[in-house]
Design goal:
Elements (H helix, E strand, L loop, with lengths): L3 E6 L3 H15 L3 H21 L3 H36 L2 E6 L2 E5 L4 E5 L3 E6 L3 E6 L4 E5 L6 H14 L2 E4 L2
Parallel strand pairs: 5-8
Antiparallel strand pairs: 1-2, 2-3, 3-4, 5-6, 6-7
Helix pairs in contact: 1-3, 2-3
Keywords: Membrane, Transmembrane, Transmembrane helix
Length: 169
């Protein structure tokens, strides 16, 4: 039986930021890096207050603080802003999900994506996320679906067609 689900997807910045933040923080575990940088900086500050700040310790603290901000920019802020800009330009469109593929018809794009190009799928609290073989992330906000039955149908189609499909709550 060939299931088809047609959804008018329109993106807003909040949808994209929440989805990308979820991937970066919960799936990719980038928060561990933030904790490491924060721990090093905090321990250097505590050591400095207890034993006095030498010029070497001040320099190290500044270097680690700058590295922490760079880490934040490179691994969090730049990807989030990049996806937000991409989806602002894309503007959404009509997505038709079937057992075989996803058809996309938008203002500037018409495409058909076979399920085989998607290596991972995630069902998070506010969106469905698909990651293709190039590690690009496709975002489908749940607020765009008409009812819970449509959301459940897409869950079923994704679980049947994507080997690495996870429901993340």
């Amino acid at each position: 039986m060939d299931k088809k689900l047609e959804v008018n997807i329109n993106y807003c910045d909040k949808d994209i930021k929440q989805a990308i933040s979820y991937i970066i923080i919960r799936i990719n575990k980038i928060w561990v890096g933030f904790v490491c940088f924060s721990g090093v900086i905090l321990s250097m500050l505590i050591y400095g207050f207890i034993n006095g700040f030498s010029s070497y310790l001040k320099g190290q603290t500044i270097v680690f603080t700058v590295c922490g901000f760079l880490f934040y920019a490179i691994y969090y802020q730049i990807p989030v802003n990049g996806y937000v800009d991409f989806y602002r330009k894309r503007k959404g469109g009509i997505y038709t999900f079937s057992d075989h593929d996803i058809k996309i018809v938008g203002e500037e794009v018409q495409s058909i994506c076979a399920w085989g190009i998607f290596k991972k799928g995630y069902d998070i609290h506010n969106s469905f996320l698909l990651r293709d073989e190039n590690k690009f992330l496709y975002i489908f906000p749940k607020r765009c679906f008409d009812n819970e039955a449509d959301i459940e149908m897409l869950r079923q189609v994704m679980s049947e067609n994507i080997k690495d499909y996870k429901v993340c709550k």
